[in-house]
Amino acid sequence: xxxxxxxxxxxxxxxxxxxxxxxxxxxxxxxxxxxxxxxxxxxxxxxxxxxxxxxxxxxxxxxxxxxxxxxxxxxxxxxxxxxxxxxxxxxxxxxxxxxxxxxxxxxxxxxxxxxxxxxxxxxxxxxxxxxxxxxxxxxxxxxxxxxxxxxxxxxxxxxxxxxxxxxxxxxxxxxxxxxxxxxxxxxxxxxxxxxxxxxxxxxxxxxxxxxxxxxxxxxxxxxxxxxxxxxxxxxxxxxxxxxxxxxxxxxxxxxxxxxxxxxxxxxxxxxxxxxxxxxxxxxxxxxxxxxxxxxxxxxxxxxxxxxxxxxxxxxxxxxxxxxxxxxxxxxxxxxxxxxxxxxxxxxxxxxxxxxxxxxxxxxxxxxxxxxxxxxxxxxxxxxxxxxxxxxxxxxxxxxxxxx
Length: 403
Fold this sequence. Notes:
This protein is mostly helical. The chain has helices spanning 2-55, 60-67, 70-75, 81-89, 97-134, 141-195, 199-238, 247-297, 302-359, 362-398. It has one domain. The longest helix is centred in the last third of the chain and has 58 residues, at 302-359. It starts with a helix and ends in a 5-residue tail after the last helix. The model is unreliable at 1-39 and 297-309 (pLDDT under 50).
């Protein structure tokens, strides 16, 4: 009898896990169904809240900027700014990577083909001038050689400075376009940041945005751009003859340019990044405290109000981050073409200097080489303004996130 009892107990112990699993599965089916229905209801409420808030925002200025940017339209895949925000919120951010790379390759090859005629012409004129100087007669050869040098040098300057002035115009227009984007994007971002409870962060980012969009950009266009032009003109004069020596002054102007950019970076990053991170931490604690207070201290309906509060915050945070991501994508479309054009022109100048130096006039090769170094200042201007824009946008996107 004792053995029978032990056998029955052993069988029960072996079957008990299966019984528990079956019973739990049968009893949890209504709970799981209710949970799935509740999740679907919350998702529908979140979608409705997102759509309602998107309908209250004005994207007309950003739509105009996008319509005037061919590269921006390529990066957006033919979508409007509003449609791209909706796609980013839906998780469809990177679906057009093939078209983006294709547009990038087309842009590079188009610029290469555009610069080939000027490269060939400058090299041909320089080599021809060098050959004529070598064939000059011994009598009065010095004066004839000087005339040949000035004529050749003048033709090369006219050809190259046509492109240089176009690059200056492209850089100025690009910086102006970035300023227009900041003036259109940041009010929306700060509005959504306020909606998610980031009032302390807004008090930091609003003056930082004003500083970037007005004072800093004015310094770049009214101080740094004239420094570049003066340095370029002085490098031209310095290579007219051996009697003019301006290399040290040109080096001073280039150093002054770099010091101003570095000082602006230090001030802006110290103000925006350090203060922004601190303000974001305070806002995050404030949001969590508000949610806890609503849920804990409001009787009966506190949990329902807390859920609704969470849905509003979540939808506002989604829109804030989607607008920021779409704004950065529009920025990429704005600066992509100018930077590629400037980089290819710099490489073309280095190639011309390398070919002209052994075959043509050494002064022309020296001027072209110096000009290639000066052109990097234009690239640094576009890159610096873009980086500060990206930094500030990224800080706003990371502030007061509740997801």
